[in-house]
Amino acid sequence: MTIKDVAAKAGVSVATVSRVMNASGTVNPETEKLVQSVIDELEYSPNGIASSLKTDRTHIIGYVVTDIRNTVFTFLMAAIQNVLWEYNYSMMLFSTNGDPDKEASILRFISMQKIDGAILNSCTNTQSIIQLNKKIPVVLTGNDISDPNFIGDFVDSDNHAASYMLTSNLLSNGHRKIGIINGPNNLVVSRERFRGYQDAMAVLGMTINIDNPLVYEGSFDVSSGYLAAKKMLSSASMRPTALLVTNNEMMKGVLKYCSEQQIKIPDDLSVVTIGNRHELDYLYISPTYMETNLEEMGERLARLILERIETKKRLPKRIFKLPAFFHDGNTVKPLTPIEANTIIS
Questions:
Q1: Which InterPro entries match (predicted)?
Q2: Which of 176, 229, 230, 234 has the fewest CB within 10 Å, making it most exposed?
């Protein structure tokens, strides 16, 4: 059974059958319905291997994340896949578990396969990414590469603005002893969020460096949020009045610790976070947070990788920063100047 058999039975050209199967051109709705009915009747399925050899395309995109358990990655994956499906592309998923050696192995594996392009989320192996980029188009999120040998795209939220606004909100509510629970320092997303926190604190003359006790470097997962809260909140005398927690997963860990230790939010501790509404709706509090639009980000990542695959001209490196949006919840307690001064002293 070949595509010619389908075309002959439907009374159309091979090109028309191809357009119907690939959704790659305008076909009269009645003709499309007829062709699809013949395909179903004959139980025709194209030979994907032969097709890829002929066109040098597999219509497969590699998607690499650091931890598939992180719901940010799964929400992004859903948004990416929705767009890819429209253009007859499929996704191959890889998770590095935050292991640099495993990441390098995965990138080598992708480079040896017939994969049309790759979307890499928070990958850090610069040289492996550059080598992969020499073979196929690559789009990044979570961690950018400044090396001029990388010619791809980078998409992320405006992380500096998000953390700056949240820290400013805490400051405007009288807080001065503000801690930050952040992700790994080797990621651009973490450095940008820390810089936003730094810049907001500096407005009131407070200089906060990376080694300050108010700063905790986590790993964007629940356990590191829990451990950070345990370290920063275990001593009542050293406890910050507020925490900026820079993602949903670590926020869950902080809330777990606070629940176990009967630390009341916001009476005993104010907390703000950066995340997406899908996850935050399930928390036992209604947090003040900056919302990252994962649907828009995922769609942008997908359309950029498809553009790089389909275009015949060489595109320059492009950087896209998407705005985050402020949501005022019930997790920030305003402090009077007397309260703030008493706690600091």
A1: HTH_LacI (IPR000843), LacI/GalR-like_sensor (IPR046335), Lambda_DNA-bd_dom_sf (IPR010982), Peripla_BP_I (IPR028082)
A2: 234
Maximum alpha-carbon separation in the chain: 86
Cβ atoms 183, 216 nearer than 8 A: no
Domain pair 3-46 / 56-157+294-322, same fold: no
Distance of CA 217 to the CA centre of its chain: 19
Overall pTM > 0.85: no
Measured CA to CA, the distance from residue 256 to residue 239 in angstroms comes to 17
Tell me the β-bridge partners of 139.
119, 153
Q: What is the pLDDT of residue 22?
A: 66
Q: Is 119 helix (H, G, I), strand (E, B) or coil?
A: strand
- Give me the torsion for CA of 226, 227, 232, 233, rounded to 10°: 50
DSSP assignment string, 176-204: -SEEEEE--TTSHHHHHHHHHHHHHHHHT
β partners of residue 140: 120, 154
Q: So what's the architecture of 159-292+326-344 in CATH? A: 3-Layer(aba) Sandwich (3.40)
Tens of pLDDT, residue by residue over 65-99, are 998 888 888 889 999 999 999 888 999 999 998 89
Nearest CA to 97 out of 256, 216, 219 is that of 219
